[in-house]
Amino acid sequence: MINGRRVAVVMPAYNAEKTLEATVRDLPQLVDIRILVDDYSTDRTVEVAQQLGLQIFVHDRNYGYGRNQQTCYREALAAGADVVIMVHPDYQYTPLLVTAMASMVAYDIYDVVLGSRIIGGTALRGGMPFYKYVANRFLTAFENLFLRVKLSEYHTGYRAFSRKVLTELPLLENSDDFVFDNQILAQCVYFGFRIGEVSCPTKYFEEASSINFLRSVNYGVGVLATTMQFALQKSGFGRFRRFSPQGRRLDLGYYMRGAANRTPAA
Q1: Selection from 105, 67, 11, 74 nearest residue 181 by Cα
Q2: Per residue of the chain (266 residues), what is the pLDDT tens digit?
Q3: Domain count across the chain
Q4: Whole-angstrom distance, CA of residue 138 vs CA of residue 85
Q5: DSSP-assigned states of every residue in 239-253
Q6: How far apart are CA 130 and CA 262, in angstroms?
Q7: 260 lies in a domain?
Q8: Range of the domain at 121
Q9: CATH code, domain with 147
Q10: What is the rounded distance in angstroms from the CA atom of residue 65 to the CA atom of residue 211?
């Protein structure tokens, strides 16, 4: 708990058995709620999570990374979290920054905090493939131009959110795939939430998850499309439910209708 706010860490998982324990080991003690959502892994991810005493929710099939996040946030809110930090269980981002990121939200400095791989200039040294680095810089410049903000990157998977953000954004209008990450940030900008960044080292290694070239291309196309939808909506030339106050938000009954099966922690 920080400043009287309950802190939750959520971990969207898929085949993370080799790196999950190291990730959980580095979580700070101040975390009140630790949730793992398994997207129908084929390895021992759930078994390891049970051994670590996590709250576990298991999808009944592989729904995708975006849907996994929706479950993560819904369950964290249902557990009473005021601040929710997404930490990938592949140990690509250090969990040691949870305290700093959660504090910036808990003390109402920002509504959203991103762990940026770009600010410290360590992305390439950490092993980020060069083509991904170039794509990151191009897409970020494109988005900054049309969203009229100045972030160092939009593509990090390390994020902290206030409860208000997660309850007010129309998250159910977003993709079930990786572009969910970008769509939620575009929504944050559109609805006027404050976004901050901290420098975060990253490391790419064999066990760390990483999307392949084709899925990276699909992600990039999705980013461009989301950005143009944002610009069209802002200029009055388009209407998209993703950027509408009437868009579908997280609700307590959404996953009770079959999208996830609860598995109790050990």
Answers
A1: 67
A2: 999 999 999 999 999 999 999 999 999 999 999 999 999 999 999 999 999 999 999 999 999 999 999 999 999 999 999 999 999 999 999 999 999 999 999 999 999 999 999 998 878 888 888 999 999 999 999 999 999 999 999 999 999 999 999 999 999 999 999 999 999 999 999 999 999 999 999 877 666 656 788 889 999 999 999 999 999 999 999 999 999 999 999 975 554 444 445 544 43
A3: 1
A4: 27
A5: --GGG-TTS----TT
A6: 40
A7: no
A8: 7-244
A9: 3.90.550.10
A10: 11
Query: For residues 229 and 171, what is the distance between their CA atoms, to the nearest angstrom?
Result: 16
C-alpha distances in angstroms, 236 versus 72, 109, 191? Answer: 33, 31, 15
Residue listed under structure tokens 């994020």: 159
- The whole-angstrom separation of Cα 206 and Cα 159 is 23
Report how far residue 262's alpha carbon sits from residue 74's, in angstroms, rounded to the nearest whole number. Answer: 13
In a domain, 265, yes or no: no
